[in-house]
Amino acid sequence: MNITATCNFWMNSSAMKALLGLSASCFAKLNNDESESCIGILLATFVSHTPHFDWVVARLGGCFPLKVISKILQCGLKAFSGNFNNTLDSEVGILGYLSMAHERDLNIALREMFEAVLYPKTQGSLTPNLHTIPYLIHLSRMSEILLQPIINVFLDTFKETLIPNLVYQSMHFPSNYNVREIFILLTDLATQVGHNGIRVILTLARMAETYSWCHELLEHILLKLEMNVLDDRKCPLLTNLTNEASQKILWASCRSDNAVEHQTVVRLILLISSRAPYIYHYTIAELLTTRADTCPNGMGALARILGGTLGTQEYPTVDPGLEISLEAISIANKRRTAEDYAQNVTILRNLQHLVAFEKSGESVHLKGQPMSGAIQRNASKLLSILFNLINQIVPETESGTPFKFEEKSSEPVEKKPKKDADFMMKEKQRIAEAVKEQIHLIVTLLDDLDIGAKDSLLGMAEILNLAQMTVKYFFWNLTESDSIARCRAMNKCFSLLTKQCSCRKAARTAALRDLLDGALFTYRNLFGAHPNPPPKTNVVRDESLMSLNSETEIQCDRQQDISACRSDWEWFEDRDKGNWLPTVGDSEAPPGCNYGMLPG
Q1: Is there a single domain that holds both residue 156 and residue 213?
Q2: Are residues 23 and 107 in the same domain?
Q3: Is the preceding omega at residue 51 within 30 degrees of 0, hence cis?
Q4: What is the pLDDT of residues 369-403, one digit of tens each?
Q5: Which pTM does this prediction carry?
Q6: Which domain holds residue 571?
Q7: C-alpha span between 242 and 223 (Å, rounded)
């Protein structure tokens, strides 16, 4: 029977309950010196009559928890130093009972113990405390309740400069605490940490380059986690890694310059992704926002994560992660801020780098081209983004500039202060450049992945839409002042139109119609025509190739009807004059005669 059950059993007795209540009231009246004497007598009785008196100490210890917890810890340390095989069941039970209601006091007492051994004032005071670290490890192994506060306090007090001191103390560890057993014990304890587990792993990873034993311990922990994942066993550390705070720490460490930390975090993400696929998807979306020029390690981590791990057949796909990024681009383009546009450019540029990296075949993790396949399967969403961006481009037929950006602000720039007006003009230029770069990057992706070609996954409606947008992109780039950029964009247009029109007549027809319409009417100023010719009449004509085709067809139909009516009239005149003689099989009137169209 544990201490909690024993307390509940004895508290059912009204006499014992009254006696303990009276004792607690008396303890509350004691001063500092008297309480020290009382605690000494209580602990002496505890040592003499353990384990039968444990529940009394645990119950009355709540009257002055800090003092009782500190004394119990010191009693346990003394017993452990005398007998390293002592299980300390009584001390562990009392500390576990008191920690449930007095966790803060337990943390204070543990901090005092750690500071006494890690920050000794003199060399002489260090000798009695050389067994403190193995003693606290022993308490952690005996009780999961004590494991978490011990880990938390240690992480708060630990500094890397204390490593030499710990190495020195390890030489004086108990004889039954050899290095191999310590590794096994610490590995088991690390996987049982339910809070701050990511801090434990990253602390070891950052010190692994300097201390080989940290690297070995880290490898033991990672192998233990892999076994738990493969065997589908519960693990508090894996559960801790899936919470939101740990995810942010993992994403930040993916950009670390420390090679061991970088590789460790990638392995952890791949491990927990098999249990929580959403982490895999959000990690892809998060790392796509990393600028490759300032933080290349982030793109390296993304390339490694895209390849998967563990050789498992059921592993998360890349598509949901890409969909999250494309949705973020669509939302950001609606907000129309410079920061949002800059982030969209970063995402699209990273996608382009990944596609080029996959095509090069330099990475063994990207041989299956997971990102290229995901982009092809989500090409319709990419086209939707391109369509919305091109709709923001308003052709300036008079000046021939590429486009003007429509601001949401209703206040004219002239009415704003000079500083604000200058800022708004610079901001407007930044936004315009970002929109321009987004369009170029999307078109480059479409061209590199042969989207719209014969083997494309797009439907006919999307192919026609792509053909029309390619033509708009062509006319828009005619206004590009940089000849090199204009030539590069033209080559992309020719490549895209060739892929779309070579195997689809409908796409070829739509592209030719839009090219003629743009050259003759919409963008005629780009080919030397007057942008706004004076109208010959007061009636404003709707000039477009479609309307002209319709008018031409109507006029042709009318001309054919008039010609048919004239031939019918001539036939009747010939019959009246007797110049026509019917033969076998002839009717009374020509086959094409329409009596309703005859005059009169």
Answers
A1: no
A2: yes
A3: yes
A4: 899 999 999 999 999 999 988 887 755 433 445 44
A5: 0.79
A6: 554-577+589-600
A7: 18
